[in-house]
Give the backbone structure.
Amino acid sequence: MTRVLGPLLPAVPFVAALVGLLLPPAPQRRSTRGRGRVDGGDRARTVAIALGLTGAAGALLVALALLVTVDGPVETSREWVDLGGLSVTLGFRLDPVAALVAVAVAAVALAVQVYSVAYLHRGPDDVDLDVDHRYPPYAAQISLFTAAMLLVVVAGDLIMLLVGWEVMGICSYLLIAHDRRLPEAPAAAMKAFLVTRVGDVGFLLGIALLGVSAGSFRIADVLAHDHPTGTLTAACLLLLAGVAGKSAQFPLHTWLPDAMAGPTPISALIHAATMVAAGIYAVTRLYPLFEQAPVALTVLGVMGAVTLLLGAFAATAQDDLKRVLAWSTVSQIGYLAGALAVGSPPAALFHLLSHAAFKALLFLAAGAVIHAVGSTLMSTMGGLRRGMPVIFWCTVVGLGALAGVPPLSGFWSKDGILAVAEAARHGAGPTPGWVGWLVWLAGLLGVAVTAWYATRLLLRTFLGDPRLPDTHPHDPPALMRWPVLLLAVPAALFGLAGFLPAVTDRLTSGAGPAPLAAGGELNHVGPGLLLPLVLLAVGAGGAWWMWRRDPAADPADHLGPLRPVFARAFRLDDLQHTLVVRPVRALGRLARRGDEVVVDGLVEGTGRATGGLGRGLAALHRAALPRAVAVLLAGVLLLGLAAVLLTGGAA
Amino acid sequence: MTVLLVAVLALPLLGALLTAALPARADRTARAVGTGFAALTLLAALPLAAGDRGWFAYTTESPAIRPWHQVDLPWVPGLDLRFHLGVDGISYPLVVLTALLVLLCCGYTLWRVPDGGPGRLLVALLLVVEVGLLGTFLALDMVLFLVFFEVVLLPMYAMIAGWGGADRRRAARKFALYTLLGSVLLLVGVFTVVTAAGTADLVALTGGTGLSRGTQLAAFTLLALAFAVKSPLWPLHTWLPDAHTQAPTVGSVVLAGVLLKMGTYGLIRVAVGVAPEGARWAAPVLGVLAVAAILVGSLVCLAQDELKRLIAYSSVGHMGFVLLGVATLTATGLQAALIGNIAHGVITGLLFFLAGAVKDRTGTGLLAELSGLRETAPRLAGLLAFAAVASLGLPGLAGFWGEAFAVVAAVQVGGPFWTTLAVLAAVGGALTAAYLLRLLRRVTHGRPTPAVAPLGAALARTELAAWAPLVLLALVIGLAPGLVLGMAGDPVQALVERVTSR
């Protein structure tokens, strides 16, 4: 059964994507623009919607079937290609963790496919009639993305993992650039792909090192092989470069905030719930290797702690609703990296799943707000609670989970990470104690900052007086409302699943012995919960107090001179531009000039010199009669002399 | 089967003669006849894979080349030259690729003939080029190889000079003279080997049996230089951008798609095979130059502002990966080189078709004058995006295997030197992505420029027919690389054992 289900999981959305890509991408130009008339474009749109929904729903069904049937690691593989003794396999590696993640991915993908139908619809009051959302390629690219992510989830071979990994990247690129009205979208898309691709240089080299060392790219073979320590550490560090790129970890995080130029459902699916978590997931798949390379885990811990705080502080000063959420994603993935560094993949996976639920919820809710207001800036919002009560309450749940308000999901899963980090301070993890301290302290500070910006977002958007009095915001249509409502359920309750043995057993199944801080449980109830709760109250209360003093002003004004620094995320973007982008461009121009002037110059010069020499010789041969006679006589004289000398010498 | 082997060469030759002989008023008919012969050639080439291709008899005593089918006839008995043709797993994919691309190009001329001359002559020249290319890939005699290698040169020159762009004469002259220089080196190299060994038979020569170290070093240097000009290897590449840019669309497709492969194929089959000791000696230099080609090629592309020129330069980088694979002299590296060859032919062929379509429609190739293609011609923009993404080596598409496994092979050789080369080549992979995405951003995104605005969304049926096989192949080879590599495994292993045995 699982032999079929494993390959079927990515295959279902893949087929939907291939068929969808063959549909006409845009409606043909019509001479008469009849409203409501079914024409070629509308038909293609309908087919595309059906394909997208079928693909995602099919994948969800397969994933659920896997969740029920798989109760231990299942491995299937057959040879894909053999390159000079290095075998690449078409392998599927299923375990309960993979099934859980697959369910999360497929569920969010389905929610996004449904939501997009209404979100990318030309409404009756759209002013710009020429806007056509090009739905067929959009839906097909989401399906392709879903297939790629599911491939990463079930891949049993590093090369297959890489295939899914990069196809996700290209889908992300295509979808960020989807909105043709945004002038900044193409640049953002290109940045997203290139920054992750830079990380993938390391990822490919890491895979190459492991594959060459083990003689096979099959994950089971790679894990079983006894690698030399140096190779292992180098490979793990190289893999981390790819992880940092994909999961937006410092210093390769710069693409994620810009990626918000993509349509909001895309941000929910790719840039919040699934793809950005793929890096973390890949580390959990290869965790036995990382455990033997504490240096790599230490680097991961530092990276995670820096990212966690960087993202949280940057989120405090944004005015763009989606950018606040984007930075909060960066920060939350920092928690996941920290959890891995202190030795607990189950805690990381638990938070990964609850984050997927509440962050997808937050983005889809934000999409509804943006749809209603027509802008992404919080300075144009305010007082939306009255007009959009459903979205308001869903956002409250999502932000509560993000900040860690009990008993919502994020509270339990984040606390799990803090508990493991606390234990790792005393050397319980695979890394030195100071990494535990670092992750724990950064995590605690992050709790307060997260509570602060989450509260600010809620107050600025939904409470107070409307800042644009003319608009009449309303709750979105059913196709957008229901996905949000349904996602609110896991965002609220998934944390309690940490008490269920069915879930804890599945999450801990892939890990080694004693991966959790206390007795194999994900959720801990004890005095350790108090400190994060106090910090939560401090952060949320602080934001509320600043807002109370002047509801019209932005609480971020209290950051003073730090605000512009936070808003531009410590200007790391500029640094990247100065240190990488500009030099590479200059190098490109230099290489072009060098190639044209020096290398080709030599070639052309040789040609010209040969031509010139030929013309010179030809000119000599065209000499006038007196000189020609002189040269002839000189030649005769020379030859005669030579003859005399040579024959004389011979005699 | 031996009949087919001869037919593969005779059919295009016959087609060329017939096409050229038809009168001017039957130009379209002539082009159709030529296309028909190209199709027959492909049909004759495909079944060559059938029949006995067992490798069971391979021992260290048996020859390293064991063709599936061969023809071995005396040709010039006085000089002991033989007409020896054969096909095996290394040459078969290239034979099919050549037959396919020439067919697509001939079919394309049914729809559109570039300005400059009668279409039937262009088709005839394409078929003559095909004879030379197929002969090069099939020849198992060094002198025969040399002859076919030369056959390609002049018709290609005529194609550029006759049907090319504004600066065609200069580009054609540069192409002819530069590659002629390579041919002279090849001539000297071939006769160095033939006089020293007393035979020109590649089956007997492969493995370097009976050649002294000095001869091998000299022969490899000469042969490698000759093939490096053709491949082209940095810094011997500067004929390529001009030739590709000025050539008509079908000329660029054949040039990039298969003509360059004569160089890499020759390097593997002739240079490495005949002078393995020379290959081992020169491998580090070859590796350094290959990585330099990757980096310089991609950097130049980053600063390039003409569409066809950019794609032409991208070939320098891509062939750098192929040559890096060869330079490692490992089975993994050679296999990567073989599939990289095929993938580059498919993908760059497609890219040149698309670039030609863009240029024909808008009348310009300058990136500054192109923008917003996806607004007015979404399908063309989508195909261009697909080709660019395939070209940047996206895993799951054809381009990935050659590039990634050239890097893997360099890692496999190990040691600080080859590891550094692997790292630099991988960085080159990121630069490749950078310039191709820059190309897409310039051409497809943004608001339409005046040149792009009047375009219609429709694509001609001939265009779709010419592009669809390449799109499909890029996907199929990406998903099932075994189609190319499955048959190459044993011959490559045999070659590598000969190369590294001493």
